[in-house]
Write a structure and sequence with these properties.
Elements (H helix, E strand, L loop, with lengths): L28 H14 L5 H7 L8 H16 L17 E8 L10 E8 L2 E4 L1
Antiparallel strand pairs: 1-2, 2-3
Helix pairs in contact: 1-2, 1-3
Length: 128
Amino acid sequence: MTEAKVSNIPICQSNQNTTNNSKVSNFLMREAVGSLLYLSSKTRPDIALAINLESKHLENFTSSDVANVKQTLRYINGSIDKGVAYVKEDNDSNLIEAFCDSDYANDTETRKSITGYVIFYSGGPIGW
């Protein structure tokens, strides 16, 4: 995947409803999603939602699930210079900001709600 085209978005949701969702057994789905999960929990909060959606299909994954994982890998390849940065400023150096968002029963499979949050300190996220 090092020479693959880069992507500007981490996941493509339009692949979820295609009719060609054949089972794939020769792709290392657990290893790929596990590596991306580690990366999202340490330095890349921008892929956290994509990894959350991709990890739901680890047992019975289809070709569209594999396409979404490859899309995330292409996004990582194209945004290798992004990450968490902390900046010390004189005026607001001890400022903590927190943001959250949620939806109500938007998951089409389970009708469960999805909640997300991010906490910033010194201009960089410390929890998400």
